[in-house]
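Entry 14. Structure prediction run on the chain below.
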Amino acid sequence: MPQSKTLPKRVAVTLPASPLISETIARVKWAEAEGYSDAWFADGGAPDSLTTAAALAAHTQTIRIGVAVTPVFTRTPVVLAATANALGQVLPGRFIMGLGASSQTMMNNWHGIPLEKPVTRVKNTAIMVRSMLAGEKSNFDLDGLYSKGYRQDPIDQPPPIYLAALRPKMIEMAAEIGDGVIFNLWPQRALAKMIEHVKVGAEKAGKDWQSVEIVNRAMVLVTDDKAAARDLFRAAFAPYYATPVYNRFLAWAGFDDAADGINAGWAAKDRQKTAGAMSDVLIDEIAVIGSAEECRARLQADMNTGIHTQIVAPLAGASEADIQRTLEAFTAANFKPV
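Output returned:
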């Protein structure tokens, strides 16, 4: 039997702070000084997250840097392995390579790349990148991913590979193949069954599931106006849940009617109808909105269920004052997760 391992509870600021790299550097320096253990990038376009992560090495000493997540369709395994090699050298022992499938909107529309067989593509990319990071000569022909004869020198501390997942097949594969699992935008009622699938996947690999770190990007806003914050969430994320990946996930999580309503609004090109399909009840299950005390209690409750690392991501469109209140609510002085 694998030996049980207790992972620490960690809190991260979200990056980038803005389109300006200087502001991202300022945020991560502030976060490190205030006792945040982590800073995790989203990967949504410019400025490039992996390049910016390398830039942070000269401005930080202890904080762990992760990317949640780099889409596997936009870079080859060789490019990902070479990039992880560089990041592992400049951030030794404190960089996490997060990989995922992304969504139809980003892949099909932005990149012109079909999002096909996402579970297979993420799995095979992770297998290839890990082998390359170990310095093994490539000899792969895996369902559309091919590499033969590539080899890079191994480094002392190759970055671990975490995989993003939403529904059962991807969650189980992520726990089986990855060193960690990354969650995003789930209704609270779905968390326990998502973690059950982490257990199943870990068992397939003979791992203790408690050794598989679960990272979560939490959409948080410390605010005195919950109604306005819910509207911010609707504006930002109703289109997200109109994509097939997230729409199916929402239905699987138990919100079939909301998923259908979002689909209908999106098909009619009616943004108001799309956003209106997200009830206050649904939003309050996904987003973390309220006083500092309420937000801290919610993140702790989710950690009690199984989340190890919470990425505090203030809602897009919020005031600078509320964004700062949100980040300050989770400094080491104000939040000690257990």
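The chain has a mean pLDDT of 94.
Filed with the rest of this week's runs.
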